[in-house]
Amino acid sequence: MTMLGYAQGPFRYVSPDFKAIASHHKVLAILPFDVSLSLRPGVMRNIDPEKLRKLEIDEGKLIQSSAESFLLDQKAQKGFSVSFQSTTTTNAILLQNEVTPFNIAKFSRAELAQMLGVDGIVYGSVNSTHLMSDGFSLLMGMSGFYSPPTNAGAIVINVADAVDGKVLWRY
Prior knowledge:
Blueprint: E1 2-3, E2 13-14, H1 18-22, E3 27-30, E4 34-38, H2 41-45, H3 49-78, E5 83-84, H4 87-96, H5 109-116, E6 120-130, H6 134-142, E7 151-161, E8 167-170
Parallel strand pairs: 1-7, 3-5, 3-6, 4-6
Antiparallel strand pairs: 2-8, 6-7, 7-8
């Protein structure tokens, strides 16, 4: 997948208050990622909106789990002082509080962090577009036309504070 950003390369933001605020963080929760999939037109015709939304939700939980594994590995390798709430626990607490992928936007980041009993949250979004088949792209390239990527995507990862929901870090 080709990773596209809003600029030429990845953009990283670190709040000027990051060190002061993050030094007090003990536990972060990782939320399911918000995923938006745009599939090839032929595929889109054969999938109903409910199935597509279920696929997006399932992908969001897979990315959440992958983020947990990555961050735990980074903690072990780099000695992060912060711990991460189990994604199983995070998802159970969200479910107990009737927070779903359909209504999570109604809650502020601070409300979610307080509900989860953590010092901050890791959350993000993934937009993936499957423009055309590999074969069609190859055919366009062989015909002398521009050969666009067959897949494109953008990933944004954020860390927000529980007190006010302020974004401390974004990549």
